[in-house]
Amino acid sequence: MHVDSTLSSLPIAEDADRPVEIRIDGLQKTYKTERGSVEALSDINLEIRRREFVSLIGRSGCGKTTLLRIMAGLVAPTAGQVEVGGKSLWHNGTVDSSVIKRLGVVFQDANLFPWYSIEENIALPLKLRGVKKRERLERARELAGLVGLEKFLRSYPRELSGGMRQRAAIARALSDNPELLLMDEPFGALDALTREKMNLEIQRIALATEATVVFVTHDIEEAVFLGDRVVHLTPRPGRIKDIADVPLSRPRAMEVQTGQEFNTVVAELRASLNQEDDQ
Amino acid sequence: MSSPFARLIVPALLPIVLILAWWYTSEGGSSIFFPPLSQIQERFQELWLFALVPEHVVPSLQSILWGLWISIVLGVGLGVLLGLNGYVATAVNPVLQFLRYLPAVALLPLAIQLIGIGQEMRVTIIVLGALWPILLNTIDGVRGISPGLIDVARSNRLRNFDWIFRVVIPSASPQIFAGIRASLAVSVILMFASELLGASRGIGYFILEAQRQFSLPEMWSGMILLGIIGYALNVVLMAIEYFALAWHRKARI
Known about the structure:
The complex is a heterodimer.
Chain A: E1 20-33, E2 36-49, E3 53-57, H1 64-71, E4 79-84, E5 87-88, E6 90-91, E7 94-95, H2 97-100, E8 103-106, H3 118-128, H4 133-146, H5 162-174, E9 180-184, H6 192-209, E10 212-217, H7 220-226, E11 229-234, E12 239-245, H8 260-278
Parallel strand pairs in A: 3-10, 3-11, 8-9, 9-10
Antiparallel strand pairs in A: 1-2, 1-4, 4-5, 6-7, 11-12
Helix pairs in contact in A: 3-4, 3-5, 4-5, 7-8
Chain B: H1 4-26, H2 37-51, H3 53-84, H4 86-101, H5 108-115, H6 119-143, H7 147-155, H8 160-196, H9 203-212, H10 216-244, H11 246-252
Helix pairs in contact in B: 2-10, 3-6, 3-8, 3-9, 4-6, 5-6, 6-8, 8-9, 8-10, 9-10
């Protein structure tokens, strides 16, 4: 694993000087179903600073995916605002596409286009933007290097393992230099070992690209290992229950997971999640 | 089974056995309905290599290819439109199913009445039969696009043109090809049937005429030709599919 040594002395992200990248204000989402309406998110308020890595954690059905999809411009909120870099993402149920441009999204499934090679998949956002072929293939190669797929540029998605496909999806999300990377349980379908490796990779990528990251997961250790802060959502309706700071410097090695600071945060979050059962 | 030798030899075995069996059992047979294969083969060479090809084979092939091409363009075009508009597709579905099960041969008398007995009539009849498998498969394929790909397309702000040509049609293409293969078989049948009624050229016309004149070896040679043409068209289509859907083939391994 290659980690740029100049990054190791970075301050951790409580750095209050950094501008706010995302501001979520009074966000609410109600789904209409045949049996009435379901409140998926209620009064969500959150500020995320530039280059911060925020994990969103909660049980299935707590609305974390809904929250991420609202931030990704895929689901319209019922009420409230999402601002990215000071600009509103949603205007009365329609997305501002100049804001979407600044986002990269990674889903639980890689969702690669099976009829395109890895290279073409990674460069797809650039192709749609009309970037010239030479330039976008160069960028695809560069990104494939970043995610360790340089030998598979000409392969097709189904020839790759799940972990490799997810790397390609991450590279695709990064291809247009997003300021904000949104990830919805991207490693949920991977085995534990691949997942650990991907966690190290995503930390390295976040540091290297200086992107702000919002990372949805239901795994406490993963959330704490990756996040500068861990936001805990509770279900029905989805609300922010608490926000835990993770006081660990970066880059973090796998070994921090045996340390006391790490385990204190994990224990607190676990207690907080278990409390939900008693309510 | 994976060696090229096995892949070429094994499928050839049964046809060779059947041809040999036919050859020897028909030799010296007395039925005028089943002339010896050697005689049929002689006729076949005289007639179809390539004396009568311009007169009878070319018009038949033209009808099939035009009919199939128009069916593909209409079927894929309408299929994408209907597949992307769920309500419209639901609304027109009963009519589509009705038309699909209405045998196109049943429309022959009407088509002759309205269009006459030219090639336009035959192409029209082929389209009326071959359109449905392509259309219905395209609708299905379009509606079956993975929601994940839709998310990716939306978060990359795909324009309608890119959405249809880079995502919708490729995604539906395995099903579109299955539809085209079914339509090819229908096209061959309808080509033949439409040539039985009021044509003066074409393989169907030739076979009917040969039967009327009791030229049974000629009739048999026409039937064999028809089979060979159908088979050859299918091989061509499979070859196109093999290259167009290379990604899908890899996906299934």
